[in-house]
Amino acid sequence: MSPIPVTLIAGYLGAGKTTVLNHLLSDSHGLRICVLVNDFGEIALDADLIENRSGDTLALSNGCMCCTIGDDFYDAIDRILRLDPRPEHLVIETSGVADPFKVGQVALAEPDLTLQGVVVVVDAVNFGASLADAFLGETLRNQIATAGLVLVTKSDIAPQGALKQLRATLAELAPEAVRLVADYGRVPAEMLLEPLALRLRRDEPHAHGHHHDHGAEYRGWVYSGDGLADPAALDALIKAPIPGLYRLKGLMPLTDGSWCSFHRAGVQSDRRPAPPPKGQGRAVAVGLADRFDPAQLQSAWDAILRNA
Amino acid sequence: MAETILYAARRIITMEPTQPYATHVAVRDGRILAVGGPEIAEVWGGARLDERFRDQVLLPGFVEAHSHMMTGALWTYLYCGNVDRTDPDGNLWPGVHTVDDMIDRMKGAIAKLPAGQPLVCWGFDPLFFAGDRLNRHHLDQASAEVPIAVMHQSFHLMTVNSKALEMAGYGPDTNAEGVVRLPDGSLMGELQEMGAMFPVMRRLNMAIRDISKGEHAIVQYGKAAVQTGVTTATDLMADLADDDVATLLDVTGRKDYPLRLVPALGVIGLEPKAAAARALELRAKSTDMLRMGICKVMTDGSIQGFTARVKWPGYIGGQPNGLWNLEPARLKELVKTLHASGLNMQVHTNGDEASDFILDCFEEAMWEHPTGDSRHTLQHCQMAGEDQFYRAARLGVCVNLFANHLWYYGDAHAEFTVGPDRAARMNACRSALDNGVTLAIHSDSPVTPLGPLHVAWCAVNRITPKGRVLGANQRLSVMEALHAITLGAARTLKLDREVGSITPGKAADFAVLGDDPLSLAPEALRDIPVLGTVQGGRVFVK
Ligand SMILES: [Zn+2]
Ligand SMILES: [Zn+2]
Ligand SMILES: [Zn+2]
Prior knowledge:
The complex is a heterodimer of chains A (308) and B (542). Chain A is 28% helix and 31% strand. Chain A has ten helices and 16 strands. In chain A, a hairpin with a 4-residue loop joins strand 4 (57-60) and strand 5. With 542 residues, chain B is an alpha/beta fold. Chain B contains 18 helices and 24 strands. One zinc ion binds at residues 66, 68, 236, 444 of chain B.
């Protein structure tokens, strides 16, 4: 049995962890994800999505599940490892004051788990004040320092000054981490589930005698739906120059009834036949925040779709 | 009418100011009818004289206000500690002092193990073990085939043999932080913290939680209590699911069960309102022998693990400040909700920043909901300064200090964690009393061994294994220390109306001692033999 990949979602209270998790669980990525949370009341999942509730577990109609940690984190992990079938991915919401490095040790130590990444959610409006809090500052700095991916929420309502300050703080605390603007928790599931944080790095890690910002800010775009893609139009789109686009990938049904997977990384692109997945067709893109315009990609995407 | 029995003793230490000492106590219906001299039962129509305690000293039954249920059932595992200890069934286990001793004991146990079973050991304390640090090569001498895990006394570390490492899939590629290596880079066998211990515990089926509940655990805990003079004890963090409660009610309700149990509901994993509702529901199900309704709140970690939240100047080694168990904002909400529901909280706070913060929470909660005598208790509260004791007294908050730490970790605190000055004011019992704070002292068994006389000995002497006296000015008198393991502890649990002193109307709960703590040198306190207990008038003495 291959180990279950684990993603940790850290961040202080109110940063938006639960919104991110709500999106992840409601999304039609087709994966059987298990999300381990402190309290599932807070995630406020759509009632239609909940298939069954028993004690500390919510089973969702899309195959995902949500478990509460209860009073013993390791007990909860043990329960999940005993599940049959095992989930395809484990996402752990850590408490707002947890040290993700410590929590992540179990995924490094346990052969049935593998640590995929640490995602830290930061709220652009309140992060500055939290950092200044004597009870919290050190803990939060520490969280950021372990992040592979930082999700910035509430950037749309944060004052310009606060955003600028936040960028500088993040560049200093986690120069290697990728930053992704994720207002309202909107972030492509793939960003959380794949070791994308590594892939997004612009260069390979090297000796550090100096201080500079390797991270960059990204913006995500995601599609899921029943539309069929026109093969020629899709080919054209994945080769087209799209400003700031870093990565585009997906799994889509074509107008001829077959399915294909495609991806583009930088200038490389590829499309090939694929077996039909369980869920709907979907696509995800990530681009540099200052140049990539998700709305522009959306209209280009809409143009290649034919109704099912 | 129920029979009245008049016990004569060499001396009775009552903890009551009106009559601190007596020689006779009359018992009827499990309660104390009268206390005084040989004639004391006459006004009650006389009594049957029982002289079995003629040469013994009776104290109020000890109240262990911070210990855990697993104390008894831990003995399911093989004891490998350095001190001589008696298991709940009365068998003496001499301490092991060398690797050879330990290997011998393990080989003996392995010979009796059913096939396919791992050997799990406990009680090992590297601080008190001479020679090289224990590693897998030592344990491999006991067996190369049977997986062996030795839990350290702290429960934060374990050392395992090569077989157990192999089962956990640990090898050259393992890069988890807590998997310790020898100088040559090979695996040492020592595993630090749960992240690293978990893979071994899963594969060896070490269900630590299972030894914290169930009939066997409850029965063994009762036996361990009798041996140490304890008649009322907490299980200071329990799930208390419905089936657990049913078992607790059943076992504690048996006529030979010797311990009044006070389990505290662990509330950290619960939403505040749900926690309060559950605690109230449990409180309503309480019986004389099973007292539920108190709540256990966690705030920070441990000082020796550098996870306690400490105020400036922090740890002397420059370690980062410790970890909160829950976001401070959530903790405050939890405390306020429980307080507003009229529930009593026992709050784990090790570092002085944590105790400060919880005092803030209590104060805010009390402003919003003045509820009178709430008697919340700071548990451990090891680093509190004068300011915090003064404030606790004003708020009516009690402290239950971890006096045993002075002996078990005192040298480590002076040398590695907070330095000699702050170590000297750790578990500042004198400051608590002088500031007018209700004081209990505890063992946190099984973190340190159950035994209130040892805890009292620590509070009185404050000495360490290396011969330090940690804070001579914080020492208690023997009488004050005995108060802290009886009436003081009962007060922190709000049970002083019924137990904690020997006075008419209270439960006939006594600790039966082989000698008189007040006539011996203070250094001898921990060596006084405990012969058993009387609990609710029932005699539990061999
Ligand atoms: Zn660099
Ligand atoms: Zn504690
Ligand atoms: Zn404890």
